[in-house]
Design brief:
Jelly Rolls, alpha+beta, TIM Barrel
Length: about 650
């Protein structure tokens, strides 16, 4: 009986011989091997072997159950040409940083309500994939408001079509729009979380809400909007000293933003979050610049002791910015805190950061690399080589086209009895005009005093029968118009110089003519309004038009000026400079490099090599008032006379 029991056995009531049992075990073993090889590299399975992502359960962060210090740096994908993403992130890695932080600009991803763009320069998923492939963790800061010295803090201008809009509150017009955007954004983000095998270890809830704080329910709404769509990683908030104590939300770790170390800030964190990790979410490595002021610098000698002390205090840190990049196009914000009128930011976002606008190493970079190397057990990667730059030969303007002749290539003008602000114009699939210039024209029968009633946003060039008579802005609100006979055309070319990105005036950032203007105390009526957003389609139509005139004919202003220059080898980075020009915008091969303005501080515009072509390249400059007829190039930037950050 014993022998027979060893010879056979029962499985689910079936008696099996020893041979059958052997075959069954063999099948099970083979199946297990196949299953292992099929799943061993699956992100879900890989993550199951790691117990947990970033946690804040003690005085130090832990990641994968081991102590972890965030050594982070901010690089915004939307400020860096996609061809250079990898170069900038490799330089970040070589500096000893382990975490990339980036904002997400809603206004770029949803330029029209319900129309979303996550491609090419805006391919956030590709950016996250790249970070992961280079071994960088990611803290994502999806907004919806991001500040960032970016137009309207990243909020889309079409929100302002609603006269009652209350931005950054639970006003239904705002929350409905946020929900619609997050429906698209967060489903792209979720697969890149740590728990899914991706690099995202934390997500920030809104941004510096404490200094706004108009709605007690708002932060809870944003947190729920993230969590309900599948965000499972550690949640954070960040606030500067002004908003400290007012921008938190239950279930999210509070962090600080500052430049100069104040122990009261550290004590504040210890008081509200005992036995929790402390982090500086934005350690400001430099500062931004505004037109008409000096170029801000923050010396390496002042910066390094603060970073050293932050690390000595066992805190985590994120350098804002590690690499600033560029406010290409019309995307710069404006500064309005404690001054009578907003001041628009310059095109460069170099920020005096450790890695320069063009990706160069700075003194700050080398000092930080040495400091961070002490927080790694392995030697840091070798420094990636720098991109070559070239000062191309100056080129002479060959053709010009007046503003008035360019109107053929814009959308059909709009007629209105009263002035209509940019955002409420019936253009852009009824989303209004977001950026650029708007031309308002009406008929006058006399000269006299034009009064803007402070309704021009932000600056207008004024013409009578296409002859320039002066400029009007926040400071200059009255202008004398010359006398003349009969009916004449009054034209106001109004520029949106950039919407305020920080502070309590976000709801007031409509542009163009935002109300009535008057001549001799009589309100002007019956306008023809042209939208001059200068989008790629317009620039392309302009480029290929047969209306260009030779410079043998005296150019009129404002106008477009065209030149070609030849690149006879692999294109290199360069900087355009325009001495003898006044104010305008530069397009190269159809791409908007940004604004220039002779008042400075910035005197050059960054031209990424990947935006140039081997062979012929086309430059189109929109200039408002004067030109010397030449475009010059430099291998180095000129950000103007410097002043220390105070």
């Amino acid at each position: 009986m014993v022998h027979r029991a060893m010879e056979s056995s029962s499985v689910f009531g079936f008696r099996l011989s020893l041979k059958q049992r052997y075959l069954l075990l063999l099948c099970v073993a083979v199946g297990a091997v196949i299953a292992y090889h099929c799943t061993r590299n699956h992100p879900e399975v890989k993550r199951m072997s790691h117990l947990e992502g970033l946690r804040a359960n003690s005085s130090q962060f832990s990641l994968e159950t081991k102590p972890f210090r965030i050594l982070g740096g901010s690089i915004h994908y939307f400020r860096v040409p996609r061809a250079y993403w990898e170069d900038r992130l490799l330089k970040m890695k070589a500096c000893g940083l382990n975490t990339l932080t980036t904002y997400v600009p809603w206004n770029m991803h949803e330029p029209e309500r319900g129309v979303f763009n996550f491609e090419d320069q805006l391919d956030l998923e590709a950016y996250l994939h790249l970070a992961a492939s280079l071994g960088l963790w990611v803290i994502l800061r999806p907004g919806p408001y991001i500040c960032a010295e970016w137009d309207l803090g990243g909020l889309p201008s079409w929100l302002l079509r609603d006269r009652n809009m209350k931005l950054r509150t639970t006003y239904p017009g705002f929350t409905d729009a946020v929900n619609s955007f997050f429906d698209q954004l967060i489903k792209k983000v979720v697969p890149h979380q740590y728990s899914k095998g991706g690099p995202i270890i934390a997500v920030q809830v809104e941004n510096e809400y404490g200094s706004y704080a108009k709605d007690k329910e708002y932060m809870s709404f944003i947190k729920e909007a993230l969590v309900s769509r599948g965000i499972t990683e550690l949640l954070l908030t960040s606030d500067n000293k002004e908003g400290r104590g007012h921008g938190g939300v239950k279930g999210a770790l509070e962090t600080l933003n500052f430049q100069k170390l104040n122990m009261d800030d550290i004590k504040y964190l210890e008081g509200i979050q005992p036995q929790k990790p402390k982090m500086v979410m934005e350690y400001w490595s430099g500062w931004f610049d505004v037109w008409g002021n000096l170029h801000h610098v923050y010396s390496a000698e002042d910066m390094l002791p603060v970073v050293t002390e932050i690390l000595r205090l066992d805190m985590s840190i994120n350098l804002y910015m590690f690499h600033g990049g560029t406010n290409f196009g019309f995307m710069n914000g404006a500064y309005a805190v404690g001054i009578p009128a907003p001041k628009p930011m310059v095109t460069s976002y170099d920020y005096d950061a450790p890695l320069s606008e063009a990706g160069d190493y700075t003194t700050k970079y080398h000092l930080l690399r040495n400091l961070f190397s002490h927080y790694h057990t392995q030697p840091l990667p070798e420094l990636p080589s720098l991109q070559e730059r070239r000062a191309y030969q100056p080129v002479v303007i060959q053709q010009h086209l007046s503003l008035w002749d360019s109107l053929h290539f814009t959308d059909k003008p709009f007629k209105s009895e009263r002035p209509v602000n940019m955002e409420n114009l019936p253009v852009n699939s009824n989303n209004g005009q977001s950026y650029g210039y708007t031309l308002y024209e009406t008929t006058i029968t006399s000269g006299g005093t034009l009064n803007s009633r402070n309704n021009i946003r932000d600056r207008a060039l004024v013409f009578v029968d296409r002859h320039f008579v002066g400029a009007v802005d926040y400071r200059i609100q009255e202008l004398a118009l010359p006398d003349g006979k009969g009916k004449r055309t009054l034209s106001l070319l109004v520029e949106n110089c950039g919407r305020v990105n920080y502070g309590n005036t976000l709801d007031e950032q409509r542009k163009g003519l935002v109300g009535d203007i008057e001549l001799n105390k009589r309100l002007l009526r019956d306008f023809i309004i042209h939208s001059l957003a200068m989008k790629p389609g317009f620039v392309n139509r302009l480029e290929n038009s047969g209306h260009w005139m030779s410079l043998r004919q005296r150019p009129s202003f404002p106008g477009f000026f065209q030149a070609r220059f030849y690149v006879n080898s692999y294109p290199k980075d360069t900087f355009i400079k325009l001495p003898g020009w006044t104010k305008g915008v530069v397009f190269i091969n159809g791409k908007n490099l940004g604004r220039y303005w002779s008042i400075g501080p910035q005197q050059t515009l960054y031209v990424p090599g990947p935006w140039l072509r081997r062979g012929d390249n086309q430059v189109i400059v929109f200039e408002e008032q004067e030109t010397d007829g030449k475009i010059q190039f430099s291998s180095n930037p000129d950000y103007g006379m410097a002043v220390d950050v105070q």
